[in-house]
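Appendix B. Extra example for self-study. Work through it before the problem class; the solution is given directly after the inputs so you can check yourself.
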Amino acid sequence: MMPGGHIDKRQLAVLITLDITGSYFLVAPRVMAKYAGPAGWIGILVGSLSGVGLGALLIALHRHFPTRDFIGMSELILGRHLGKLWSLVFFGYAMSVFLIIREFSTTILTPFLPESPIGPVIAIMTVIIAYLAYSGIESIARTAQVFLPFIAISLLLILATALAGGDLGRIQPWLGKGLAGIGLAGLNAGAVFGELVLFLAIFSHLRRTKDDVSGFGWGLILGTIPLTLVTISGISLYGHQGVTRLTFPAISIAQLIRLGRYFERMEAVFIIIWFILSMLKIGLIIYTATVTLAGILELKRYQPLVLPTAVLAVLLSLQPKTDYSVLQMIDFFTNYTLPVTLLLPGLLLVVASIRKVREPGPTSQKQQEAAK
Amino acid sequence: MNGKRLLAAVLLLLLAFTLSGCYSQNEIEETAFVLLWGLERGQNREYKITLQVAAPSKAGGSGGKGGGGGGGGSEEEPYWLTSVEADTIYGGIQELTKRASRVFHFSHAEALVIHEDVARQGIGAIVDSVTRNPDMRPDMAILITSDKIEDLFKVTYALENLPSTYIRRMLYQSDSHQEAPLYESQHFYTRMQAGDEAVMPKIKIWQKPENQAGEGGGINGGSAAVPTAAQGGSDSGGGGPKEKEPPKELILEGAAAFKGQKMVDWLTGPEVRSLTILRGDAKRCPLEVEVEGTKCSLQVREIYRHVKVKPNLASLGSSTIQVKIDMEADLFEVTSSGLVINNPRLDQVSRAASEKVNNQLKELIRKSKYELKSDILGFGELIRRNIPYARWEKEKEKWNDDFRNLIVKTDVEVIIRRIGMTTRSSYVY
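Solution. Structure tokens for the complete assembly:
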């Protein structure tokens, strides 16, 4: 296990919430309405089922190997070389975070900074992300704990606006584009819940192993609620067809927030809140990627690798040429990565049970304690 | 530890660069805030774009100067009015920047006024431009006019400095008469589609009834006599007839009904009110009823709208929709002092009121079905919510032809809750 601090149950829940809502908050209404029509919000709920399934896998693995992160487990289970290879897949998956970086910077650039080149904006984001990842998982978790209330407030305002100015009836018919559509939406949302696989690299920071179930469970619930509500709000304000046509649904929804006739134009405040949220999420993912990479390279500390990893992600994020290709790549990501996220822990679990791998006895635990 | 702190400090310093906002900077002194803008048919090009831009330097002093010399007031308008002809809206705005010292900013634009000619031709391209441009906000009001837009924007009103404030506040104020709908650019997404066609408020320059008696009487005739209009008329009449005085008032009344992206016809104020009631959005509206030769003036509020949809899957067009509207009314005026207000009498008044509103609703539904042939009532949307998704997608194209067979049952119930501060006029012995 790499250094990075310890987290408790609540912090795990906060991190999971952060990872689910994170930047997906910004686009969920559009993607869900695209597949499921008016019933997009059910798509999120269906998708969260994959989060439950994945959670079961992750917790089973964590219970078997409570002190090991992903690289540790896979080296133990698959052997040294195969384990490294498998961890490389994990690292590659974590690097798809570049999509989130690009998506979020586009969300800032197109509506708010139309003349700015993307480079400097992303460079500034890199600095923040790298610093977060450098500080370790405990710092990220504590920061997230501080900012989560603001995010809850922003959500409440959105919901109030939807209730006041929208028409909740627009989410009918209840089945939307039919069960197939809801299934597709569920698969897409499931890919986002699939990102939780990254917590294989984080669980080992838990102070008490048994906290994993309640932390994960609460995180899952707290993460699903905002996504569901923002989808309902989006559809009731813009209609399911309208939401499908919005490039940045969350921004368009935030633009409608009006407190009386005086507090208007709240979206600038909102984007700051969401900026923090997204930075924390990206920092978290970069942390997991870096830790895994450091494990593959058998380094004692992961910190030296933070900046290179962040820069690599940023360079990747600069690859798509137009906003539209970003949307396409996100669609690609959500369409195809769910199996990968299930396979990553699934294979480990299957092989571990076949080979009857157990965590090495007390000697290694003593080593762990010595390392602390 | 020290190295970490140093790194943190350096990173924080780096962040400071973001504060200066070196790109995309908008100095407030270098920004031209567009307050109102209008689109008409150009003489040579597709559009004539008229912008009304705030002139802050003039706005501050206008009160004092207005008090000093009345004649000079018109030159010192607190806005800059400019226009250009162009084929695309964005192109036109860029063309205008050649004549401007500041960058146009649309995020404070209160309203877009579209001329009837353009609206009848179709506003699809305008919808795209308004919704695509990140500068334009989804809460910008959309209005339709048949007057020359430049004249409309020049109307100076006594209570507000800027025409844009005037229009915006009139829109807010429309809650108290319900004779003009509210349509914002966000509604392009929801209220401009099959089953829920657009209805945009109509704004026009208000002319004294003496000059154009026919038109004024036609619109305000019947029960819908607008008290403000009547007052305005008598005031100016008392002041003595002045010739060719520039118009000082606008009037927000009626609406343009659309079919798809094209305007098809005007709706009168009372029709818009019925539409608002039918859609369940009426907050406060005046209503006059006559009982035994006595007129009673009521203020009516919509409490609840129960809608029951029975879709007929064999033929969607002949589905059944039941609309039951519960309203509360306050009694504000009884013209005959002999009329005793008691419960039976109130029942009589509320029955008359219910009947009147119901008849107006039926008339509106008839007009929408057979004259406009456009579902401005939003019934298609109600049907959509109650049938499978694919079915609606298949039928929505021809909905405007089909929905005339719709069986609509309306039922209005007005309950008079409050009778005011007196039970019977005090001069009756």
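Self-check: Chain B touches chain A through 27 residues (CB under 8 Å). If your reasoning did not lead you there, revisit section 3.
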